[in-house]
Design a protein that fits this description.
By secondary structure, this protein is α/β, with parallel strands linked by helices. It has a single domain (3-134, 158-281), classed as TIM Barrel, CATH 3.20.20.370. Helix content is 39%, strand content 14%. The protein is built from ten helices and ten strands. The strands form three sheets. Strands 1, 4, 5, 6, 9 and 10 form a six-stranded mixed beta sheet that branches. A two-stranded parallel sheet has the order 2-3. Strands 7-8 form a two-stranded parallel sheet. The two termini are 22 Å apart. 41% of the residues are buried.
């Protein structure tokens, strides 16, 4: 990794720790009125890769969630947003994005060990047709994606499946007609391959440049019931179900950060999200 990339990594880690330390509250002061959705991507041991969380770190995260009784399912969260049910204080929903194979090999066993529910947001066009791993990994791909068989078994083991668009493109950065095709084709393929409807959506990238009122309205018309962004913050009853925030979990954070993150320490990162709006829009 280049020196510039290393310095960026260090700067990001310092910034996240500073925000978490500045906005932490005593853990006992959690709230029954909010929940949080935590975002992971991949699981493994790749140094200086914020999107690849080592399994031993993920194990410690899920152990904490289980020990505190914080884990909630997608169905429970959706009912909470509608105002139809209460959740435990500072409940969290565990999610992963993209559909990489380490969700099957590393994430699932840990979730099952602690009996914690989760959601895997998957880009269906990237799911492999066969279980046999290709001999070559594309240079722009950090690891293989799951197969349809593995994805189906993931669902059988209690991990809900969500949609991450058809080809992992920013919906707000394309004509609305194309965005609708992304949403419809993904829904149709999930139904054909898994034999079930997939009605929760996570915006690819999820920055403020990647979703809009128009995309939210379109997803609702297509039939999706919830949609998640990558904007940080808590979820409250009555929020717009088509623009729900999530909180990103990264590798390389200090061990004390994750418990505080569950109780709101990284909610303030939304100000960083908002400050990057112009950069995100020009991407």
């Amino acid at each position: 990794m280049s020196g510039i990339a290393r310095r960026r990594w260090i700067a990001k880690k310092v910034s996240r720790a500073a925000v978490a330390a500045a906005f932490s509250t005593p853990l006992a002061r959690g709230s029954h009125d909010v929940a949080r959705v935590l975002t992971y991507h991949r699981f493994g041991r790749i140094p200086l890769d914020p999107f690849c969380v080592p399994p031993f770190e993920f194990d410690s995260h899920i152990k904490y969630v289980a020990s505190q009784g914080l884990g909630a399912s997608l169905d429970e969260l959706e009912a909470f947003v509608r105002g139809d049910r209460a959740l435990t204080k500072d409940a969290v929903v565990i999610t992963s994005d993209d559909g990489f194979r380490s969700v099957w090999t590393n994430m699932l066993p840990i979730l099952r060990n602690y009996d914690v529910p989760a959601v895997a947001y998957v880009t269906p066009s990237l799911i492999r047709e066969t279980d046999a791993l290709p001999s070559h990994l594309p240079s722009d791909q950090p690891e293989h994606y799951m197969s349809w068989t593995e994805l189906g078994r993931l669902a059988e083991h209690g991990v809900a499946i969500g949609c991450h668009s058809f080809t992992h493109r920013s919906l707000a950065q394309m004509p609305l007609r194309e965005a609708r095709e992304q949403a419809e084709k993904a829904m149709e393929l999930f139904r054909a391959r898994l034999g079930r409807d997939v009605l929760s959506f996570a915006y690819p990238y999820g920055t403020r440049a990647d979703y809009s009122d128009e995309t939210a309205r379109m997803l609702r018309e297509v039939g999706y019931t919830t949609a998640f962004t990558s904007q940080h913050g808590p979820i409250r009853k009555g929020m717009d179900p088509m623009a729900l925030p999530r909180v990103k979990v990264e590798s390389g954070d200090p061990t004390w950060l994750f418990p505080r993150l569950c109780h709101g320490a990284m909610d303030a990162w939304r100000f960083v999200d908002q400050g990057l709006w112009r950069v995100q829009l020009s991407r």
